[in-house]
Design goal:
By secondary structure, the chain is of the alpha/beta class. It has six helices and four strands. Strands 3-2-1-4 form a four-stranded mixed β-sheet, sandwiched between helices.
C-alpha cells in the first residue's frame, strides 16, 4: 500500500466525507480534501495547483475550500477561492489551520480534518449561507488523490 492509502482507513474517510456533507449543509461553500504522497513544490503552491486541477475555482460564488495533505512530506495547507478571501476575517485561514495541525501533531489525522472542516462550514455560513433546495453541490465531496 502507498502512504496515501495508509493515511486514513476506509471508515475514517467516510467520516471525513460525512463531515464535509454536514459542513456544506450550513453553507453554499464547497469543501474538498486532497491527499497525495509527495510533491516537489511547497505545500501552499502545490495546493494552489490542485485547487485548479480539481476545478475548484469554477464555483459560482468562488467559495471553494481545499484541505491539502502531502503525506510523505508531512505538508498541510488550506486555501480558499477569491470569494472567500474577500470576506473572511484576516485570521480565518491561520486559525483553521491551527485546529487541524494541533490534531495532526498527535497523529489524529481524521480528527484534525473533521474539526477543520466543521469549523470552516460554521464560519462560511455567515458569508455564504446555505441556499436551501436551490443550493447545488457544485463539487464532489469524496477525498481526491494523486
Amino acid at each position: 500500500m502507498s502512504a496515501t492509502e495508509d493515511f486514513l482507513s476506509t471508515t475514517e474517510e467516510r467520516e471525513i466525507v460525512d463531515a464535509i456533507v454536514k459542513a456544506e449543509q450550513q453553507t453554499s461553500g464547497e469543501i474538498r480534501v486532497h491527499i497525495e504522497e509527495h510533491s516537489h513544490l511547497p505545500a501552499l503552491e502545490r495546493a494552489q495547483e490542485v485547487f485548479k486541477t480539481l476545478n475548484m475555482h469554477k464555483t459560482s460564488a468562488r467559495n471553494g475550500v481545499l484541505f491539502y495533505i502531502g503525506v510523505k512530506d508531512r505538508h498541510f495547507a488550506i486555501i480558499g477561492d477569491d470569494g472567500i478571501d474577500k470576506v473572511v476575517p484576516y485570521d480565518f485561514w491561520e486559525s483553521t489551520k491551527k485546529v487541524v495541525i494541533d490534531q495532526f501533531k498527535q497523529n489524529q489525522f481524521k480528527e484534525g480534518l473533521i474539526q477543520g472542516i466543521l469549523q470552516t462550514g460554521k464560519q462560511l455560513k455567515f458569508f455564504f449561507p446555505y441556499q436551501g433546495k436551490d443550493d447545488v453541490n457544485e463539487l464532489p465531496n469524496e477525498i481526491s488523490r494523486s
